[in-house]
Amino acid sequence: VYNTINPDDPIDVINMSLGSDYGNPDDPSAIASQNAAEAGVVVVAASGNAGHTPYITSSPAIAPDAISVAASQAAGVEYLQVQVNAPEEALYDAQPAAFGEELPGDPGLSGEIVVADPLLACFDDPSDPTEELNNAADIDGDIVLVQRGECEFSDKVLRAQISGAAAVIVYNNDTSPPITMAAGVNADAVTIPSVMIGLEDGEQLNEWAATGTAEVTISADITTTKPEFDDTMAGFTSQGPGFGHVFKPEITAPGVSVYSAGVGTGDRAVPSSGTSMATPHVAGVAALLREQYPDLPVDG
Is the pTM of this model over 0.85? Predict the structure, then answer.
């Protein structure tokens, strides 16, 4: 397999994060990966994010001689949290958005929670984002609470911003952990910070906000470590085995809250999770190993 830019420089390692959860060795991407491996290229591919359901791992990672990578939680990871100041003290796990302003450092941004009306805070026409929230008159530099669902995250945050919000907290619409909210059509127009929290935590904030007593602080410096998760398998990672009782994935690497380039931000790094974040670690190690031992065969 050769580099089309420089045919005299053969490709040593391929890193891939693509494919479908129900991987099959007969999938075209798996066949292509196997052909590359048989030509001497180290092929490293993400196992997938379908959870712990048996016999699910992705194509092209299912290719016999591809290295299929699962995701684990590295030791010492710092997890962002939202601090609840009133009506009682609490700390909620959170994830920052991949768009808008970065979270402020200590002492952070504090304010009263105002629940969005409508709760989903979606534009009727996202291509013309000029609508305020129905309760914009009640928002004056407050932190607006909205729920995930129906429209892009950037639409929700922008609509709250237009209504006068200083920041936005999005809470999940299912019991899965909060995620890094991806940039959407209106991401470039967002100039305030936002985070996501879990469903149960969001419902509690919503309940407190209904009484007019919910106050929180968001800050990049409010974090915690969770030693109980150190070097354990991520809950989202496909663990195999593969189709036809193939032993896949073969290896795991850190894939939870890994900082990478924030798409569309120009210069920001944002934490992301997935086997797509774990796979490059293994590809990098493979590249170093091949540099040290250029004649080492793909199959070991």
Answer: no
